[in-house]
Structures are given as structure tokens and as C-alpha cells.
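Q: Convert this sequence to C-alpha cells.
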Amino acid sequence: MNVASLAGLDDATITALAAAGVERLRTEAASPYLLIAEHAGNLVPAPWHDLGLAMPYLGTHFAVDIGVDALTRRLSQTLRAPAVVAHYSRLFLDYNRPAGEWDFMRPDLGGIPVSGNLAPDATDRRLRTRIAWEPVEQAIIEAAAGRQALISIHSFTPVMGGVRRNVDIGVLWREPSPFVTSVLKTLGAQGAEAGLRIGDNEPYDWRQAVGYTLNRHGLEQGRPCLYLEVRNDLLSDPETFELVSRTLEGAFATVAMSLWPKPAIAV
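A:
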């Protein structure tokens, strides 16, 4: 990056870029859930010139969780639940990673260098934190207050390292809770009826992985939480998107009515 041009950004520009980086949906909803989509967007703020990448790379799974923006908006609407949706690409800054992790500002795409991330200096890191990290952090803190459970929504590729993954929707958890148990049981049953394979800590095992968002805002605050992973090709086809959405809506509505009937919404 051009250090001089970044250092020259004025406060008004920085404030505008920060405001553009996060969106809050249904902030006044009474749902027990807060939905979080840290990887929903693939935007890079203009002063960073797409991190030196050709535009097609910003449409890949390296840059964005494909289908998650639409899925989060659908679930927020039908479950009448608040949601925090991040707009900036995880290549610009990955909110779901601790700042010390190598992929907090990922330097490569499976061997293809991300030139804008190869050597970010202190000014660059400070500005990215102000623009892409602090607004999401504040939005989640405010939206999580009073919620019974947090759901972080992600998507995954159907093939990894040449191996096809044998799940359609994954429920990732680190600490057991009545919420996690109920989701696994309910989504497992309703998913099977819909012909969907539900994974228990698959295709990733959160107990073996880093997950900043729900560690920080879920477990450390004593809130039940889970990461929801959906196979991204299912979200790219309208028919299977509808199937996945209806299945998740039914399962999470059932769980809410069972555990927290007063504020829950039946769909």
C-alpha cells in the first residue's frame, strides 16, 4: 500500500469508511437470537485498491463466504431476529481471527500473493482496525445485549484438498449447552427429512480451531453460541437455497419455542 496516501486519510473519510463496513438488521426485534455474518461481504475500501488483486479473486471463497449475505438476510426476516452483517472482505481484515493470527490479514490465496497484505505497516493496520474491526465489534456488543444465543453464519466449499466433504450443513460448537444439544437434535431430524446431511462439528471442529467472534461475544460472556456452516453451492442455486433456508428457519424456530418461548417467533 501507499503509506503516504493512507496516512493522509482525513477523519471524515475514515468515519465514512467505517460506517460503510457494517450493517445492522432488525435491531429492535425481540428474538432470543443474534445472527452474525462476519464474512458476508467482499468489498475492499477504495484507498486499498482491492489489495492489488484482480476483481475475480474477490468473488472467491478466499474473499467472502458465498451465499451468506442472502442467507443471513432471509433468516433475519423470517425468524425476526437482529443481525450484524460485515461488508468488507475477510482479505482486508478477518474479524473472526485474533489479530495475531496469520490470516487476520491473509498474505496469500493458496499460493497466490495478496500484495496489499504482504507487509502492512502500523499505520495500515491501525486504519484497518478502525474501519473494519471496531465498527463490527461495537455492533455485536450492542446487538448481543439481552440475547439468549448467538449464531455466526458461514459457508464452506464442497471440496477441500481434493476431498469431498460429506455434510451439507455443519453445526460447530466448543462448549456443550442445552442450546447446542437442541439445535443438533432438531436440525438433525428436520434436515434428514429435507434430505440434508447435518454435521456435528463438521466440516470443521471448533474445538480444534480458532473462532474469535464467538469466543469473545459468546463463551466469554456466558452466552450459548454456535457457528453455522452451509455448503456454498447449495446457496448458489435458488431451489437448494430455498430448501436450506426453510430447514434452518423451522429448526431454529422450534428450538427457540422450546427453550425461550416468550420472545420466540414461530415460522
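The CA atoms of residues 53 and 112 lie 10 Å apart.
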